[in-house]
Amino acid sequence: MERRTALAALVEADRAHLIHPLHFPAEHTAPLVAVEAAGAVLRDAEGREYIDGLASLWNVNVGHGRTALADAAAAQMRRMAYTAAYAGFSNEPAVRLAERLIRLAYPNLSGVYFTTGGAESNETAFKIARYYWKRRGQPEKTKVISRIHGYHGVTLGAMSATGIPAFHRMFAPTVPGFIHITPSYPYRYAGSQAEALEATLQAEGPGTVAAFLAEPVIGAGGVIPPTPDYFPRIREICDQSQVLFIADEIITGFGRTGRWFALDHWGVQPDVVTFAKGVTSAYLPLGGVMVSREIHAAIAEAPPAERFMHAATYSAHATCCAVALANLDILEGESLVPRAATLGDRLLQGLRTLRDLPVVGDVRGLGLMCGVELVEDKATKAPAVGLGARVLAEARQRGLVARIRAGQKGEDPIGDVICLAPPFVITEAQVDRIVEILREAIQACR
Ligand SMILES: Cc1ncc(COP(=O)(O)O)c(C=O)c1O
After folding, report:
1. Which of 380, 378, 370 is nearest to 345 (CA)?
2. Confidence of residue 1 (pLDDT cuts 50, 70, 90)
């Protein structure tokens, strides 16, 4: 009884003072107040358990309750929690982490700049692209081409790159010079769609474009893996037009797709990689940008008048970097990246069995990120909009939490997509339970 009163008071104080990401009171009438978590399971204030179907926000990759990460943070905090990392200062965890990331990522990369999250990483990448072309004597190359349905964060520049209109509506205008093209989305568009980049480059003039930005697998926009020929062709087009290719691996990095970095599936190397989320499995906030040797040299060899005037107080935060190093120890020590591939296959196979349901239009995924797109009509692929939220509510009653990409009708249609990306430590039984719960939840919405 006392516990319930305490919870009610907490929720009341929440309503009174806390502005949430995507704040909307009607969606917050019965918030899930998680108080404990272990592995792939969250426990709420009333003792109910839920499978954490999206690893919270695609990020708790090594699972909840890792005391080794708490110990790594505590040890670093006791020694020296933080100090400046501006030029002239450094710290060992940041250097060790940069060295280790460069060993793990694409072989053409050589430099790392650390941030505190995803959007800041993309903002930094846009600035690095502009910086690089100015250093190369092409200051007019400033535009960024990204994709419809892409999600890149919601700070002003990142929001402008994000290709989901709902995120722009109340914050417009977007920053000039951000252009969106059709993505590779086999369920709705035939062919790879790589030629959309070629056509847009021609229309804009390649001499005005700094970079092309894409998630290897669209995540929050509805889990959309590309056709296998898409990124190899994108790489060729970027090379021909002298446009940098920025891979937003904020979800796909650190094993989510069953490889350390996702473009490896198609043998492609980007010029710039942005990362966050899985680098610390969310135990502390950290993100960053990795750059190619050429870009790294442009920064390292700049004359005084062209020095790299980009910075942030918490770049290369010692404690966050120490936690990232311990997180990488877990990923490697427990072979969790191949595990994500195996368990991802099991999840995708399981979800495919839902295709007999009349509202399940498409089931897709790569590694441990999967999406179930809901439609009103399988023949016309008319998007289901609103059904996803009801399915999620039913799923929560049955012990599964996840998120949806809200669908849209009209231009660039997409049905509600149930997104799944559980921790890599999820068990086979829990994977099978996700599928069972979703079947029941969808059927309950008829
Ligand atoms: C692919 C991708 N890029 C960028 C971001 C933005 O990251 P953050 O929310 O840390 O700013 C996200 C967040 O979900 C993401 O999924």
Report:
1. 370
2. low
pLDDT in tens, 171-206: 999 999 999 999 999 999 999 999 999 999 999 999
The H or E element that residue 16 is part of is helix 2-17
How many Å apart are CA 113 and CA 111, to the nearest integer?
7
The closest residue, in CA terms, to atom 13 on ligand 1 is 153
Percent of the chain at pLDDT > 70 equals 100
> Ligand 1: distance of its center to the CA of 3 in Å?
35
User: Ligand 1, closest atom to CA 120?
Assistant: 11
Does residue 358 have a cis bond before it (omega within 30 degrees)? no
Taking each continuous run of H as one helix and of E as one strand, the counts in the chain are 13, 16
Q: Of 251, 254, 272, which is best to mutate to test ligand 1, by the most ligand atoms within 8 angstroms of its C-beta?
A: 251
What is the structure's pLDDT at 175?
98
CA 90–ligand 1 middle distance (angstroms): 27
**Residue the block writes with tokens 């094993």:** 255
Angstrom distances, CA of residue 33 to CA of 1, 7, 29, 50? 17, 8, 12, 12
Tokens, residue 345: 């296959």
DSSP 216-265: SSB-TTT-BPPPTTHHHHHHHHHHHHT-EEEEE-TTTTTTTTSSSSGGGG
Question: Would you state the torsion angle of the CA atoms of residues 24, 59, 50, 362, taken in this order, to the nearest 10 degrees?
Answer: 80
Length of the chain (residues): 446
Question: How many A from CA of 283 to the centre of ligand 1?
Answer: 16
Question: What does the block give as tokens for 258?
Answer: 């069953």
pLDDT band at 446 (very low <50, low <70, confident <90, very high): confident
Element (H, E) at 417: strand 417-420
Can you read off the two tokens belonging to residue 229?
């020929």
Distance CA 349, CA 327 (A): 29
Q: Which domains does the chain have, with CATH numbers?
A: 32-62+335-444 (3.90.1150.10), 68-333 (3.40.640.10)
